[in-house]
Amino acid sequence: MKKWLLLYFCAGLAFTLTAQDQFGITLNGTAGSLRLCDAAGFPIEGGFTVEAWIYSPEWKPEFWQGSVVNKDATNPDAGWALRAGQGGRLNFVMSVDGRWFEVATDALMNLNQWYHVAATVGGGVATLYIDGVPQAAGSFSGTPALSSAPLTIGDSPGFPGRVFNGTIDEVRVWEYARSEEELLASRTIDLTGTEDSLVTYLPFREGAGLSSANLAQEDCAATFTGLGEEAWGEGYSVPTTDVGVSAITAPDALAVFSRPVKAQVIINNYGREAVFDVPVTLSVNGTPLLQTTFTDTIPAGGEATLVFEQPVDLTNDSLLLLTAGTTLAADMNGLNDEAAITYRRPGLINTNPAISLFSSRQHNFGSAGQTQSTTVNLPLDMERYERLLLHLSVTCPSTGCDPWDQTGNLSVVTPGGELEIARFITPYRIPCGGPEWVVDVTDFKDLLAGTVSFKSFIQVWGPSGWLLNADLEMVAGSAAPRYTRSTPVYNRQYHVYGDPNIDDDLPMRMVSIAPTTEESRFRLTMSGHGQGNTDNAAEFLERTHQLVVNGAKVADHRLWKADCADNTCSNQLGTWRFNRAGWCPGQAVQPWSHALSPDLTGTELTLDYELQEYTNLLNTGYDGAGHTEPFYRIAGYLIENSSVAYSAVTNLRADSVVLFVAGSPGDPTGDELILYLSNTGTEVVPGGTVAFYVDDNLVAEETFTDTIAPGTGFVYTFAAPSGITDYETAAVTARVTTSSDDNVSDDATAALTVLFSVSTTEARDAGLRIYPNPTSGQVTVELSASFIGGRIEEVEITGRVLSTQTIGGTHERLSLTPGSGMRVLRIFDRGGRSYFEKVVVR
Asked: What is the rounded distance in angstroms from the CA atom of residue 134 to the CA atom of residue 183?
């Protein structure tokens, strides 16, 4: 589970807290702040951390309006700021090479609840934490711009009036990027101020007066500005006992509509003491369905994974709201007790399932915002899909479409930042989509597996904007599984090109290709922007850049789109017919790809992308002169493919369960329940437990100790199938559980068919014999003369008939359908009486 992806879905409940710290500073959202000196002890080039506790009774409409700890300035833009608002979003902004770079979380924080918030900067990555859990990250390149503005608590020194509404406590600034473990360990611990690398520490212990001591720098105290002593308020509080559910991470969005599934949730201990015996309830569309108890101990600040072992069958629904919540009696905070996730039945594109990522999601320069986010539980076993195709389109809000061609993209949020997987350019004022709005994202199988947080962005400046649709088409493959590994090389959304005052050389990157990699390539999505400059760059400037590997040029990349007039998104307004630097209005930006030499497999190498020389002679006064400086948007990756997994995976899948009944439906004489399993992971499975349910009631749970190797199947016959009394109407479900299973979405299966047949013993008495068994695919069926004129059916374990053959003699050769697993041969004599034999195909 990716902890930094957790989402909080909470209800507003009253609660009582026990105070940890006596005092904090309360601001009314309109005026006032605390200001410190502009000390040399606030370096940012080598990395830093800013953290605080915050509490708000009412969030400001926009996150930039709620300053927490700021050192931002303008004319020129410099420094950084940590802010909160817009329904509970945390935001961090920093000037890099004089331009604002920012990262923001989703709306995760409730009103009237204390949160520990932090921003860390280091190694070209800025990460935002809430209660010690990383929730958003962004990567940047360039040099952070130092600010001489005073460090300010509760307001912005460079943009006055952006006053926080609420209470701030325990402000700390460190001169390095602290780790997740460090933040978790110390967020509720009092410091002395003498800790290594601590440059600001404001515990607000005074409770009176118009200043507060900075225990890390005595000569740099915090002075009240526009505040009186009434600003002293109650400090942060952490409940003794506070446990909640933060996310539902299974089932995945395909499995939930195609098979019985287990649910998996993340439980967090937000309190100061360990908890155990935590009851958790799973509800579907508002109706409680399952309840279980997590009996292990969860330490303070820790988290745990809980799996509801009883499968639920939700395949008949089209819209599902799954909610998981805790009901611990001692819990002192009800605001974080529940998490929820919505599932919509996938649509079909070219007969393939398509998962909706965004559906008519508005983007604007207004209340909706230019950035939207969603979290989707995708299948973990993406290697079995031959292709992943992202379908994009934009439609118009009721107020009309935006009039300009604007850049948009779709990114996956990772601990290393937001990684772009697709880019598009909106059309001029009309809705559009179609074949030119499809991006092959198969290269990102490793990013598009499990619980995935997506962010969409459309740079739009009007209040209308666009409604975005994004669907992920899953094309299953018939060949062996293919694994991918994507390594970010360049991730720059604003790379200035041709300014003699700014170095536009892209850095050389060191990357490694795994020994198991069978093919590798460099994938680049690049588009030029800016106009009115020398040669009308970079939007209308054709250029040829070079890919360099280990110091030698391996490919030329001509960045030019020469067919804009043939755009299927035609009859736009504006200059849509003009060719451009890698894109056209109303189209997705298609990536450029170059295969790397097989000789590089298993080596470390240098990748460099060298831009063709260019100097912009109009590199001043962009806004005043009515033009935009030339720049590139660049997303480059090393892509590796292999038939061997790049990381260890444990997964035992329940393929099917079949009830074999001897006799006939009207006169059954015995039954046999068989569960077919397969190890689709990379690790050996050393046994586990199986169980089956009849009409949602547990009938039997049994243990097996057989070792199952990767890529092999396993057949388990239940010792106790009794209790199934109505073979034709009972809903029979089976599930498997094994330790460290990474994928619980495929652990359950339903009996899709009941095979009625005369028993195997009777078949042998009738002179029927099948050999070899097991087989590699060819079998001989030995029969008595009474079978001549009858037929042989090859039946899949789901009950589907794969082939039929008429019996012409007493020795029949049969070629079974390719593929390993279990088959059932059903043999009919001339009178129509049926017999069956199970055959293992290796």
From this structure: 10
